[in-house]
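FORM 7B: Structural annotation worksheet

SECTION A. Query
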Amino acid sequence: MKGWHGSILWVDLSRGEYKLVGYPGEWAQKFIGGRGLAARILWEYLPRGADPLGPENLLVFAVGPLTGLPLPSSGKMVIAAKSPLTGGYGDGNIGSLASVHMRRAGIDAIVVKGRAEKPTTLVVRDGKVDFVDAEHLWGLDTWRAERALRSEYGKQAGILVIGPAGEKMVRFATVISQEGRSGGRPGMGAVMGSKNLKAVVVIGTGGFNLFDEKGLKKLGAQAYADVRRKKGYNFWIRQGTMATVDWAQENSVLPTYNFREGVFEGYKGIDGYRMEELKVTQRSCPNCNMPCGNVIRDAEGELSELDYENVAMLGSNIGLGDLSKVGVLNRLADQYGMDTISLGSVLAFAAEASEQGLIEERIEWGDFDRFAELTREIALRETELGNLLAEGTRRAAEKLGGDSMRYAMQVKGLEVSAYDCHAAPGMALAYATSPIGAHHKDAWVISWEVATDRFSYGPEKAAKVIELQRIRGGLFESFTTCRLPWVELGLDLDYYPKLLYHATGIRYTWDELYAVADRIYALIRALWIRELGGWDRSLDMPPARWFKDPLTKGPLAGSKLDLDSFRALLDSYYEQRGWDERGVPRRSTLERLGLDFTVETLDSIVGLRP
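SECTION B. Predicted structure
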């Protein structure tokens, strides 16, 4: 089997044992790698109904056949598990040297189960594992912990760590690498913490097992050159995703005051041009020639790596218009090991709950000092309010009651990322149907939507969401490489099946690749149904605020989503996916996609439609 190593490293922390085992070649060909391989592993081996924070949960680190190769932005891996934030399938990708080292170590996935008796670092060297005492690292922030590990294992070692938020099992704790790379929004860091796993160090010295290494290097070099020649390359190098602040303000989609509005009066204080004034350097994932990590000197004199999502959520969404202070909150989140998107959402939720009198604490919009203090309280679960917000907005709203669920900006328990959808039904659908909860990664349809008919609820919007989910969430997440060369600079998608051929020797057509993506999405939906013990289409609905509370500012004042029209749009999405009106894949769809192994279980839970 070329392109893949065909090996999964299984690690049992409870027993202090490991083994390297093969997996069916059919899994590689039908699910490719990364997200696809992780979902297949979880379906096969995750005990049904497992506690996400219990030892029986499986934590999967998975790479794909293009990971680590000399081609644009290939330094990615997927980290997946049953999510402690949502209760369903959870994952996130992260750029890290660990991705490249996994490939060189001859491993397609690392699967961790059990719970260590004491804090532990897993050190993986070419398929062999050492269980190393990490008690001296427990309690350290991610930067200090990684620096300590790097001093021991070398500057080029692949290192994945959690911070205090993961140790305290904050439900949106993430995994951190390289002092600014963060992955696993639905609580993958909390899963590591629940297992007493402080860090994973990967060191690989082998090759990639390629079908046509010479051809791949030649085509990869051509793709690198194409990226640099793109018209927008120079501006991208200047601002990266931070250019989105001005675009979002102009188009009334910049999340402001907990998604009440789509415009922010202080946006110029947090936009890409302000970032350029504060910028001191750039960072990127391995094998990337279009770095997206813009690093500023923050208000406390420390380095903070920014992109659009964390700036919008920790800026306009909480009423903070000073980028140097936004940088502090962002850095604290990275050091504690928390998702910046969910952090920005729970901080805004707290400000609104304070405003509505649902909590006693006084939290004002734009109060940087209080937000910084509250960030620590959340990460360490130090106070009653911090402990509440560490559970995420859905659980916090359920506990507070009143009308608070109206402004819990989440889908399936995962907080909405940084695009307001009062006047963007297509993007609202993308959030509603993302396989991990409300995340933009799978289908960033809003730029296309704004450029066409943004107020339409027609079936073409469902079709566009599915098209982007196939490419972004299905294929890039399984190759596993970054989508930004294509998304931001327009690198020709046809590079990817050609690169895949040189890696594996398999000539996938686009129809076959789309079938792989559809297979992954249907399998993830099957995992949700199995783990929740049923399904209701209300789980695929965006936050109530976008239907009930119209915008009051900007050129689109008065806009809100129409509930009946959105329900019809969701019906169209289900129909085009081959799912029934409940949002459950039909028996015929599962069989067509080769997911027969899910049929008996799903039929016993929900009763499959033909």
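SECTION C. Observations
DSSP finds 26 helices and 17 strands in the chain. The domain at 430-490+509-606 is CATH 1.10.599.10 (Aldehyde Ferredoxin Oxidoreductase Protein, subunit A; domain 3).

SECTION D. Sign-off
Analyst initials: ____
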